[in-house]
Specification:
CATH class of the largest domain in chain B: Alpha Beta
CATH class of chain C: Mainly Alpha
CATH topology of the largest domain in chain B: D-Maltodextrin-Binding Protein, domain 2
Oligomer: heterotrimer
Helix content of chain B: 25-40%
GO biological process, one term (chain C): transmembrane transport
Largest sheet of chain B: 7 strands, mixed
CATH topology of chain C: MetI-like fold
Radius of gyration of chain C: 23 Å
Number of domains of chain C: 1
CATH superfamily of the largest domain in chain B: Periplasmic binding protein-like II
CATH architecture of the largest domain in chain B: 3-Layer(aba) Sandwich
Subcellular location (chain C): Cell membrane
Number of domains of chain B: 2
Family (chain C): Belongs to the binding-protein-dependent transport system permease family. CysTW subfamily.
InterPro entries (chain C): MetI-like, MetI-like_sf
Structural class of chain B: alpha/beta
Shape of chain C: globular
Number of helices of chain B: 13
Number of strands of chain C: 2
Pfam families (chain C): BPD_transp_1
Order of helices and strands of chain B: HEHEHEHEEEEHHEHEHEEHHHHEH
Largest sheet of chain C: 2 strands, antiparallel
Structural class of chain C: mainly alpha
Order of helices and strands of chain C: HEEHHHHHHHHHHHH
Distance between the termini of chain B: 47 Å
Shape of chain B: globular
CATH architecture of chain C: Orthogonal Bundle
Chain lengths: 270, 366, 287
């Protein structure tokens, strides 16, 4: 009896997950479909064609912009992953009077409209004398990537039973050891989801990237928005389709490669 | 989960490498250099700053092939972004900037623009004099006019029963919920002023208040406000009448030739996007070489059919393809071109009034 | 005692990078914005360092108060809707076997790695007069004339929830997944009904996640400007649009800054409430 009910509930939740995911992917499917549109303007379907992929592969500026975006997104999400995680751990475990204030300030960048933050950065960086270009952009992106990781990790930490860490410490493990072997695996999902979000935000940022860019560091979103003056072409759709394809390949491959390790890992967890 | 995290990091790095190799293979992207390399000759680099695709890709490629000068193309999406940036770098970093007339005027007034050395640009003479000597550069010392345009009315005659001759017809009650307008205070209040026989640059607050009540009467006719892609709304059938910029109107006609263009009888607005060299441009010589290159008649004839703006280069006229010259958003009759007006910079008080009227109007529409 | 202090030292060291980046790269620029909001604008371009309160006085204009109110309304609606959809999603996700959880998490995020503008264009293709939904409805015969789906308040809300949903799902998931299920079972064993156990135990234990999610959804939803432009047909002025306009088309930086300061203050208030409630929500037995 209980088993049957259980499977029913599993089915129900599976369907719910499926429906919401499907809704998330419908617009993406249309993006993919329209990457094969012969017509330049997305309003009209002009027949099937692979032209935009050809255009894309010959567009050095687009490729350069994509490369800049990836460099920027990956470096800032890795750097802020480290800073945000350490900060969240330190803040939750240690007791500092200034912690609350810092937490609020650190979260501000995702709350301030991009445009105003962009102008503040523009003025501030020229005042401090940091030259525009990739390093400045990475700093700028870190400021709004950190909160995503910080909030996720802190949420996770608040739910962890501190007695586990204490037990490890009582058994003689050092602080670093406790962090590496106990705390980190426990907060890993928080770090991962925070970094995934941060990467997404970095990939989408237009204004801050624009204000901090140098002559050679135009990113993809800056280019896309800038193209509105002369009509966005399905070339962008083609690019999105390809990046989605590559991402999914990586996910699938990492799942296959990791599946054995996962089984082992799970046994350890249990 | 820790494994998944590590997996993600590895995947991310792999992706970086993957794309890195891909782009290293086929691109000749030059590295960042500020030109102060101690060489007597300029390095073969040109830093361009403008909207994406406004200089067509094939033109840039053939320029690089011909001269060996590699191009860094960086983009902005609004004029104001450009000026903030240019001001902070004190007119350095970029060699060629292409932006709209009023902002070029501001840049000149701020001393951020360098005078052109016409001796290095023999093809400057190819420019049609009717597009020269404008308010932002009366003596043609600083700029090369590039994209010329005028906002127009476009409509779908199969779905509109009323006759449209000018801005005033947009107020026709028969057009309820069917207009797409550019989302811009100056342009839309501007055409309202035009229907009242006033200037696009009116600053008198009493007149503006009057224009406000006139504008409010338009609210029921507005279906969409869209600055960037109003042509899509017309082509999709969401709207039947549109007021939009030249290249947008021309795009409409290339996709659907049955649409009709109206040259409003009250007189046309007018705008010129112009090229200049910033005051501390690191590669001044290359910038002049570039200007001379794109001013060649045949090169210009390649550019304009791609960007769909009016062509100010008289040497290009004979080479322009028929499908471009016959586009009625491009081919504006001579009599309509006589009575045109630029949208210029107005006082802060007037500008604030325009914007609060606009905010109120948009709230009323929604 | 000795041990405790040593740990505090290493925790402080861990926090140092966050402190430095926050103070240098966040606080200083934010202070600049605050200063800017008290300045006068220069003729045509830029600002003068003359002190004025006029930017704050101007905020009381009914037009701008309406903008603020409209933005708050849509932010509340977006947050509630995202919570109603996202929390159950996170709950179901946490109930999956561990391997599938990772896959679903990636599936939730990957769409957001494609350009935001292009994704919203996808919705426009779906919703427009001759779009997929209308064609389908006409085919089936549910409607005779195409519905006006696009450029409505509903479309804006849809776009907002769609864009911000992962920010609700992930923090909720993060706290549900870590929850100690034995407490729920204990409550059930002690005779609590399913609903009661959920309300008193599950919901309470996962409150930090819910609240983080609300913060991450609520605040950005006031600043997102391109969604109301694209899906709402530009017919709605929200805080994000207004600030964007003041900076870029009206060239009035100080007023834009004043509007931003108001938004920041509202956010800080929100965060204050959030911190107070997460402190309370730490169940005594666990913290």
């Amino acid at each position: 009896m209980k088993g049957k009910k259980h499977t029913q509930r599993r089915w129900g939740s599976g369907i719910y997950l499926g429906v919401i995911l499907a809704l998330m992917y419908i617009p993406i499917v249309l993006v993919i479909v329209y990457s094969f549109n012969k017509q330049k303007i997305s309003a009209v379907w002009g027949g099937f064609s692979l032209d935009w992929y050809r255009v894309l592969f010959h567009d050095q500026q687009m490729m350069g912009a994509l490369w800049n975006s990836l460099k920027l997104g990956i470096s800032s999400c890795l750097i802020s992953g480290v800073i945000g995680t350490l900060g969240a751990v330190g803040m939750t475990k240690g007791r500092f009077r200034t912690a609350g204030a810092i937490e609020s300030i650190a979260t501000l960048p995702i709350m301030i409209p991009e445009i105003i933050l962009g102008i503040a950065f523009l003025t501030f960086f020229s005042f401090v004398g940091i030259p525009y270009g990739m390093p400045a952009m990475i700093i700028g992106h870190c400021t709004f990537c950190i909160p995503y990781i910080f909030i996720n990790v802190r949420t996770r930490l608040l739910g962890i039973d501190p007695s586990i860490e204490e037990a490890a410490r009582d058994l003689g493990a050092g602080g670093g050891r406790v962090f590496w072997d106990i705390t980190l695996p426990l907060i890993a999902p928080g770090i991962l989801s925070g970094m995934l979000l941060a990467f997404a935000m970095s990939l989408d940022d237009v204004i801050i990237s624009f204000f901090l860019a140098g002559p050679t560091s135009t990113t993809l979103p800056v280019r896309v928005y800038s193209q509105l003056k002369t009509a966005v072409t399905p070339e962008i759709n083609a690019l999105c389709t390809l990046t989605m394809g590559v991402t999914f390949c990586i996910v699938i491959v990492s799942q296959i490669l990791g599946s054995n390790k996962f089984k082992r890992n799970r046994r350890e967890e249990l | 989960m820790k494994k998944l995290l590590v997996g993600f990091m590895i995947a991310a790095m792999a992706m970086t490498l993957l794309v890195g190799c891909g782009s290293a293979g086929d691109s000749s992207q030059p590295s960042t250099n500020n030109g102060a390399e101690g060489k007597t000759d300029e390095e073969k680099v040109l830093n361009i700053f403008t909207w994406a695709t406004y200089f067509p890709d094939d033109i840039l490629k053939s320029f690089t092939e011909e001269t060996g000068i590699a191009i860094n193309y960086s983009n902005f999406s609004t004029n104001e972004e450009m000026l903030s940036k240019l001001e902070t770098v004190q007119g350095g970093e970029y060699d060629i900037v292409l932006a709209s007339d009023y902002i070029v005027k501001m840049a000149i007034d701020k001393g951020l623009v360098k005078k052109l050395d016409k001796a290095q640009i023999p093809n400057y003479d190819n420019l049609d004099p009717s597009y020269l000597g404008n308010y932002f550069d009366p003596d043609n010392e600083y700029t090369v006019p590039y994209g010329v345009g005028t906002p127009l009315i476009v409509y779908d005659p199969s779905r509109v029963d009323v006759e449209i001759k000018g801005y005033a017809d947009l107020w026709n009650p028969a057009l309820k919920d069917s207009l797409v307008l550019v989302n811009d205070a100056r342009n839309i209040l501007g055409i309202t002023l035009k229907t009242m026989g006033k200037s696009l640059n009116e600053e008198d607050s009493a007149v503006l208040e009057e224009a406000k009540s006139k504008l409010m009467e338009l609210k029921d006719n507005v279906r969409v406000l869209d600055y960037d892609t109003p042509y899509n709304k017309l082509l999709e059938g969401e709207a039947t009448v549109g007021y939009m910029f030249t290249s947008q109107a021309a795009t409409c006609l290339t996709v659907n030739p049955d649409l009709k263009v109206v040259y409003p009888e009250e007189g046309l607005g007018f705008g010129i996007d112009a090229i200049f060299t910033p005051s501390n441009a690191p590669h001044e010589k290359n910038a002049h070489a570039f200007l001379n290159y794109i001013l060649q008649g045949e090169v210009a004839a390649d550019i304009y059919p791609q960007i769909l703006y009016l062509c100010p280069n008289k040497a290009a006229y004979e080479f322009l393809p028929e499908e471009y010259t016959s586009n009625s958003a491009i081919n504006i009759p001579e009599e309509n071109r006589k009575d045109v007006e630029f949208i210029q910079v107005i006082s802060n008080e007037a500008s604030d009034l325009y914007n609060s009227i606009w905010t109120e109007f948009v709230q009323a529409v929604g | 005692m000795e041990k405790r202090r040593r740990h505090d030292g290493s925790f402080f060291l861990a926090m140092l990078p966050l402190y430095v980046t926050t103070l240098v790269f966040v606080l200083l620029p934010v202070l600049y914005v605050v200063a800017l909001s008290f300045m006068k604008r220069d003729a045509t371009w830029g600002v003068t360092s003359e002190f004025t309160l006029e930017n704050y006085i101007r905020l009381w204009d009914p037009i701008y108060l309406k903008v603020l109110l409209d933005s708050l309304k849509i932010a509340v609606k977006t947050t509630l809707l995202a919570l109603a959809i996202g929390y159950p999603f996170a709950y179901c996700m946490a109930k999956l076997p561990p391997r599938k959880r990772g896959i679903v998490m990636v599936l939730v995020i990957v769409p957001f790695w494609t350009n935001a503008l292009v994704r919203i264009y996808g919705w426009m293709i779906l919703l427009r007069a001759n779009g997929v939904v209308n064609t389908l409805l006409l085919e089936i015969g549910i409607v005779d004339v195409p519905l006006k789906l696009l450029y409505t308040d509903g479309a804006v809300l849809l776009g907002m929830v769609y864009s911000l949903l992962p920010f609700m799902i992930l923090p909720s998931y993060t706290s549900i997944e870590k929850m100690d299920w034995s407490l729920v079972e204990a409550a059930r064993d002690l005779g609590a009904g399913k609903m009661r156990a959920f309300l008193t135990v599950t919901l309470r234990l996962t409150l930090p996640g819910i609240l983080s999610g609300c913060v991450l959804v609520f605040v950005p939803s006031m600043g997102l400007f391109f969604i109301s432009d694209l899906l709402g047909g530009g017919k709605e002025v929200l805080m994000g649009n207004l600030i964007q306009n003041q900076i870029l088309t009206a060239r009035n930086w100080p007023f834009g800054a004043a509007l931003s300061v108001v938004m920041m203050l509202m956010t800080l208030l929100f965060l204050f409430v959030y911190r107070k409630s997460t402190k309370q929500s730490q169940p005594e037995g666990m913290a």
